[in-house]
Design a protein that fits this description.
Largest sheet: 2 strands, antiparallel
Structural class: mainly alpha
Distance between the termini: 15 Å
Number of helices: 3
Strand content: 5-15%
């Protein structure tokens, strides 16, 4: 998952989930866990989160 995020930092959660072959809900949980662990950070950019 980190490779997919690093490759395209503007990818939507839906795109990340599809690239990894998992559901959006599972991808959201993993992204939240990665953020809490300090591996990634999210920023709001208008209506989107990067």
């Amino acid at each position: 998952m980190l490779i997919v995020i690093a490759h395209d930092t503007a990818a939507r959660l839906r795109d990340i989930a599809a690239a990894c072959g998992i559901t959006e809900r599972t991808a959201q949980k993993i992204v939240n866990d990665l953020e809490q662990a300090g591996y990634i950070r999210r920023e709001r950019n208008g209506r989107r989160t990067r």
